[in-house]
Amino acid sequence: MTEPHSTAxxxxxxxxxxxxxxxxxxxxxxxxxDIRDLRTDEQFAxxxxxxxxxxxxxxxxxxxxxxxxxxxxxxxxxxxASLRKAGVERIRIIDQAGGIGGTWYWNRYPGVMCxxxxxxxxxxxxxxxxxxxxxxxxxxxxxxHLEAVADRFDLVDDALFHTGVAVAEWKEDxxxxxxxTDRGDEVTCRxxxxxxxxxxxxxxxxxxxxEDFAGHSFHTARWDYGxxxxxxxxxxxxxxxxxxxxxxxxxxxxxxxxxxAAAAKELFVFQRTPSAIGERGNxxxxxxxxxxxxxxxxxxxxxxxxxxxxxxxxxxxxVDDGWTHDYARTRNVPxxxxxxxxxxxxxxxxxxxxxxxxxxxxxxxxxxxxATAEVLKPYYRYLCKRPCFHDEYLPALNSPTxxxxxxxxxxxxxxxxxxxxxxxxxxxxxxxxxxGFEAEVTPLFRRVGHEIIGRGGVTLAAKWADGAASLFxxxxxxxxxxFVMPAPGQQAVVTVNYTxxxxxxxxxxxxxxxxxGQKGVDVFDVSAEAEDSWTQEIVDSFVDxxxxxxxxxPSRLNFEGHPEEMNPRNGNLGRGxxxxxxxxxxxxxxxxxxxxxxxxxxxxPSVP
Length: 608
Ligand code: NAP
What we know:
Elements: E1 6-7, E2 10-11, H1 13-27, E3 35-36, E4 62-70, H2 74-85, E5 91-94, H3 103-106, H4 118-121, H5 125-128, H6 139-152, E6 165-171, E7 176-181, E8 186-194, E9 204-205, E10 216-219, H7 225-228, E11 243-247, H8 251-263, E12 266-271, E13 277-278, H9 287-291, H10 297-309, H11 322-331, H12 341-366, H13 370-376, E14 388-389, H14 393-396, E15 402-406, E16 413-415, E17 418-421, E18 424-425, E19 430-433, H15 444-447, E20 451-453, H16 460-463, E21 482-484, H17 498-518, E22 523-526, H18 528-541, H19 546-549, H20 580-593, E23 599-602
Parallel strand pairs: 4-5, 4-8, 6-20, 8-21, 10-19, 11-12, 11-19, 12-15, 13-14
Antiparallel strand pairs: 1-2, 3-9, 6-7, 7-8, 16-17, 17-18, 22-23
Bound molecules: NADP nicotinamide-adenine-dinucleotide phosphate.
């Protein structure tokens, strides 16, 4: 029996807080965040290999282009498209993947989809005259669409796939970046664009003994269909006689549970923290939907979504889903007139409690076994972890072949025959790691995976060692002619719909390069004043919420239970997750002014 969280008189904050803290403490264990560093760990190098596209031998490339973009995912493709529109001819995308798509190239696990509405997530729908087939798109459709965008803007032929940048070095004399790759390429470029995204480094936990496991194993971002059979939308035909362990119940883990449950002889779902899983309500696109759309509809729909997420008054809720209901509601609890801070915080806590209670009731409704349902209930505040949305995950756990293994302290160890929890060994043929990525809180210079050497030999890693320093979160002094696509934790803003941020960043890069070209500028750098001023603005808008967040269940959003480690310099423009509309206005006003304020500009007659 669990303790009641509401008394007959109603909600009891003391009881709820105590329960949340007790659940947090079960998870705040030493070594919780230990990982195998997949960038360098040669014992696990096979986890990095591309199972989707064979590596084709080629000679090293040596040439000079106008732009190199690192990363062929949404951000890189949109940056490329925008630069094309600005008249740039030679663009080379460089990516470790065997093709376009970034996250959507790598993540082809069964059931992969995007839980942000497809009509706002897939970029350039109007330009490509495409309407996704479902309200929430499956990975294959997203990948095909991104490939279509890349084709439309001719970004594929010059791309270097299965290629990692090893070093990028600014050459003062020539006013060019020199890019060296792990395949011996030597490319110079005038403009260098980093578009590596936030989900490019797979995270593999360092569980003692994992190298002893004798079965098969892989990460969800490298799904091995050769082993499981089937495909992203097809049954996993080879698993009928296999026991499978799935580690992790975040957005990726829950999406691949239904197809795994349907196919495997036995499925063990190892859960450290239950996600809050809201209703999905996916459905085929209404044929009338496209007929009703007016030009400019996609930007308007993205803005409408973002407005609701930020608590702005909007006439309609066009997307009308769990993000605009639960996420927006808990993020923007209204402050009643005359409320003291204490009263306001209490009211926010109660709203949060109601939202989380609804999630806990949903578990009770959908999961038949009471003990299983109990461990699946999320006992923490809604914004402590990234919420999830799914309609088939919880029902799939009712299958007699599925066992949820509750392990709040993590997996004890992995033995030759399988994972061990509380001294019990689970014999399995295969372990699937749905353990995520080094995301928002991993600094850019680690995520890019190569040394970036700017003016005077200073590396980006050295410059940003104590936190980001930028103008607009997209340029940094000492790294001339370099753009960084905006991302969380990098002096820009956080958006639920990443595409909207990528569109803005891409438009900014294209328009800025266009203006630099019109002025005949060869080299730009950020002035010290402009960078200091932007960075100071970010620091000034930082709100230290660590006292509230320390009550959270540990997650990557709160540095695995250490929110005090948040560096104000890696914050956002505006309080908390940032003010999207203010950020966009700043960028648009700057572009409209057309005087490239805050940049130091050099025209070099000798530069060809
Ligand atoms: P994730 O959210 O980081 O989840 C990783 C899971 O692995 C968590 O359940 C985590 O437990 C568990 N885990 C990590 N280390 C463990 C250990 N040592 N022992 C046991 N369990 C361990 O990763 P993800 O699901 O791949 O999602 C990553 C991000 O990708 C998401 O935040 C989202 O932005 C994006 N994504 C989006 C969609 C979409 O539909 N839009 C779909 C998939 C992914 P804890 O919870 O206790 O940490």
